[in-house]
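Hi! If you just cloned this repository, the fastest way to understand the data is to look at a raw example. We've pasted two of them here, unedited. The first protein comes first, obviously.
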Amino acid sequence: MEIDELERLIRLLKDEALSEITLWEGDRRITVRQATPRPSDQATQGKAPDEARDTGAFTVNAPLVGTFHRRPSPDAAPFVGEGDLVRSGDTLCLIEAMKVMNEIQAEKPGRVERILAEDGQTVDYGQALFRIAAP
């Protein structure tokens, strides 16, 4: 692939507001990903600093790209649901990346306000997964 073609892909990515483009040429595959602002930064934009701090709520973001799983297996109950109380270290979900299941745990205690990703959905690095309110 020539540099001009790569630049064209990057422009297309930005112009169409896409997060990723994959191009196959024979047996070669090239993927171009656009970095997105962290959802937690977007959530506090436009709010007064004190207002953003006073709520005590926080967002759990995806630490890697992969497939979001709410349950340990298809026939099991979800790790957490909206309204559930969680403690530090509780497993919130799994993100599957390259056939490896990565546990995503609560860093702080709180109550799950919203689950922001769908089971089986591909999530990007930094994408908001859960909104958790202070206990």
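Ok, and the second one:
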Amino acid sequence: MKYYIIAGEASGDLHAANLIAEIKNKDRNAEFRAWGGDLMRKQGVTLVKHYRHMAFMGFVEVAANLHKVLGNIKECKADILNYKPDVVILVDYPGFNLRIAEFAHRNRMKVCYYISPQVWAWKQHRVKKIRQNVDEMLVILPFEENFYKEHGVNVSFVGHPLLDELSKQGSSPRINFIHRNNLSEKREIIALLPGSRKQEVERMLPTMLKVIPHFPQYQFVIAGVASLDKELYARMIGNKDVQLVVNQTYELLQNSSAALVTSGTATLETALLSVPEVVCYKANRLSYMIARNMIKVKYISLVNLIMEKQVVKELIQNDFNESNLVKELEQLLNNPEKQRQLLDNLDQLKHRLGNSGASEKAAELIVGMVK
């Protein structure tokens, strides 16, 4: 069978790669063509375009790069028609993928959506398009299943693929991680996760770096991604007392006492590794004003959304500043009662997400649908 998969960012690349591995176990004749990243390429797919050429963040940024976005959509549609897949698998990335879903459905192709767009948070009108154009929605958050059932969408809850990924990682001995990255054995680590997109890093990292002088007893380490040029990080780091590690995010978190994390999948990854965190987010001012008027949920972090209460502190837009970061980080590091409550909540979070096996369950449903 022929599978066409589209993932538009780093987390989608990771989960799509794991899905591909499981599909290959269930369909020995599987062929793959994809838009995604290096992890998908390592699984043997023919990669049409890397997500680094697709990731635009925010309304203003998308508008500024609209010709590129529309060009990518046109190219993708033509490539799908030429490839004639048995199923099109869409991984999150809704602005792009919902257009492809409509196109594929109109051309009588089977469409499976793995990892739902956050339509329950904003743009709920998209549910109608999903119901019309998607044959099967595979969701990874427990409350999403009821949401889609209420809107008449074929849906299955498969569990969260991060649980699979984290179970594969195992523990990373601190001494090995420290020696490999020339870090100090004597100082505890605070992790900085500024995001995986260039725009995110440019917007988030400079403010995160401002907290370093307030915590001289700790060492700060940035979780970099290989898809971004090291010069981007170097330009902002300058002569500050901070280290950069690339593609070692899980190991970094496993050896950190706390973390400052840009809102997104990384907030959930950090929580599942039981690391105290402050969730950070800042967008272009106009993009934020538009989003604020459209969002229908109380929180932006997956941790708080799943737990239906504030478990981790969210510093958004103007609240994301040096003073607030220092205040919240001090609480995480020096307040034993706050630490205990937080870790108790993170244990409950893991329970709500269920057991591992999401990638295998998703692959079984997709192969079954195709065959």
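That's it. A detail worth noticing about the second one: The two ends are 8 Å apart (CA to CA).
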